[in-house]
Amino acid sequence: MLLYRDEEEIYVERLELAEGRISEILDSLDGDREEEGKDSFLCYFRSQFSFCNMCCKLNKHLRSGDGEKDSLEELRELNRGLYEEILPENYGESWSNPAVCREKLGEYGQLLCALAAEMRAQIAACYERRAQELVIRQELLLEVYGAFESAFEEGMKGPKAEEIREILYWYVSDYSEVVMERRVRTQVDPAEDFCAKIVMEADLSDNRFLYAYGEYVTKQEERMADYLRGLPEEKIQLIADTYTEGYRMGFVLGRKDLSKKKTVNIRYHLGFERIIRAAVKNFEKMGLKPVIYRQAVSILEGKGINRIGVYGAAANRQFDYDHREDIGLILDKKLVNRKLELLKNSFEENREWAFVHAGPAVMEIFGEADFTPENKDCAVKLTEKQQKLSVEYASGAGQITNEYIRGEERSFTIIAFPVPDIGERFEEVFDETIRLNTLDYNLYRDIQQKIIDVLDEAEYCIIRGMGENRTDMKVMLHKLTDRAHQTNFENCVADVNIPVGEVFTSPLLAGTEGTLHVTKVFLNELQYENLELTFRDGMVTDYNCTNFETEAENKKLVRDTVLFHHDTLPLGEFAIGTNTTAYVAAKRLEIEDKLPILIAEKMGPHFAVGDTCYSHAEDVAVYNPDGKEIIARDNEKSLVRKEHPELAYFNCHTDITIPYDELGEVSAVRADGSVVMVIEEGRFVLPGCEVLNEPLLSGG
């Protein structure tokens, strides 16, 4: 629902009342003598109200316009102050740390820790001038404090923990409507232009613009902006053209009508605004206006570990990991039903814009410092029942979203670039990435067609690792009934998935079996050691890794972050990456462990667990450049989508790549048992593909 001026004034008044009460409480807490049994709680609330007070001052500062006068040094100091408590060097004493809260707050630890994390959503509310979303969080803290204050006055050690849980529950239930409608609106309505205005109107010659979002900003974001500022305009335009042309080609090759669309969702990391501005101008020539929204920052928005939208630096990835399942404190069937109903209502209110939304254009980053999470038993974790509810919500939300932003009509594109944290050779890596993103379309198209022609003769493929890699997979392929006009594999060149370099298919599940293993892989912002999945009839039957000391911890990590709480997932994709140039460049620059899956998947065969690449668009005919229709758009799971859509989709798709140096064999096995080798011991041996080995032999 749109917030009218009189409603906004009401929330400003409520905010003033909350601010006054917070000041009173801070004065009383500063005057209170510490008492045994209460001192930890007094320290906790003093910290939280102090943060609220900081946000109140920030809100006034920004609304008055004085923030526009702040110097760069003042902005840096303010930004650090807002995030200081959760920075790694301070996290050991932070009330946002589950370990600290468990030790000092006992049975209330998880509840009050989650509350502290939710308070941090006030930062975004201040910068986006959302008085309503600022006041609801301050009133939440006041209500929880009031419960403790009343209990202390009655001589109790505190309220019942269930009372605090109920307060949190009704906060989420009551205010999800407000935030859900706003979240959907920012996804499709270009009038929600907070971020777009920064991109298009800010002075990009001055790094002060980076601090206008309210995201955490480090030297990396400033250095990124500095670097792009120094590039010639033609190089910026080349990057933007590659990005936006890939998006346009996704519609052309998918035979989808882009002229019906009016908006495109642009996602990027702070520091890339000069490229994004050029891209917006390109999109406008296609008739598309930008919709740009911030990453989720609140439990009300479904905040998790993945950052989707516009985002700055992660102040502390362990903090993000610790709070990824805070919803587990209150998640139940009633809440799932309510959130799905609200999502449906929100899309209905914004249906006109949703119907003309074209899909996301994503600019990913890579090169950030490695992160291996600490698995804390004191952090909130979803129960088995809640994991099923989480899956149910994701499935329902996916169906609703697809009803309004129709899968068969939308497309996407993804491109990736390094950030300065990648190391001293950052500029060299950046230039190499531009080269990879602009490789010869026609060369790869023709070579990949030779691979597809052989694979289309096969009944199944065999993929085996070598050395320490234990992969041994058999992947079944769909039966072609008209080879002259049908194919199993898509010839993927530089359109939706940039850079060029793969052929992929949706395998048959029945008969697909074996073990997939990689010694090290970086997925969903986490690094996995010895990730291993076992398949039978195309479904995951077992999984493990070696990140932690115990098998239970390792299995939980994989289940939570690769299977996304599902008991099992299908093999949604099998592909052969052909971009040996990227592989050799990564080796030469020593960045193999830094690359995003977007590039890594082009550097060897890869497998995706979850939905197929054609999820929600299976009925749309897709053709290769040679005119053949790709008929492998379904598998046995997605085929039930019309009768049982809740069983057809898993709302996840995670690619796992075997690098060439761990690859012993990729072969095509015909129905008569004859075998054609495509790759052997990390080299392409199929006639006509010799040029792909040249980078491997020459070192670049």
Number of strands: 20
- Strand coverage percent: 15-25%
> Major sheet: size, sense and barrel closure?
8 strands, antiparallel
Q: What is the 3D shape?
A: globular
Structural class: alpha+beta
- Count of DSSP-assigned helices: 23
* Total domain units: 3
- Calculate Rg over CA atoms: 26 Å
Helix content: 40-55%
Strand order of the largest sheet: 13-12-11-7-6-18-19-20
Average pLDDT level: 93
| Span of the ends, CA to CA | 55 Å
Low-confidence stretches: 1-6
How would you describe the overall organization of this protein?
The strands form four sheets. Strands 13-12-11-7-6-18-19-20 form an eight-stranded antiparallel sheet, covered by helices on one side. 43% of the residues lie in helices and 17% in strands. With 700 residues, the protein is of the alpha+beta class. It folds into three domains: 5-159, no CATH class; 194-207 and 214-404, no CATH class; 439-690, no CATH class. It is built from 23 helices and 20 strands. 47% of the residues are buried. Helix 4 (98-105) crosses helix 5, helix 11 (233-253) packs across helix 12 (273-285) and helix 14 runs parallel beside helix 16.
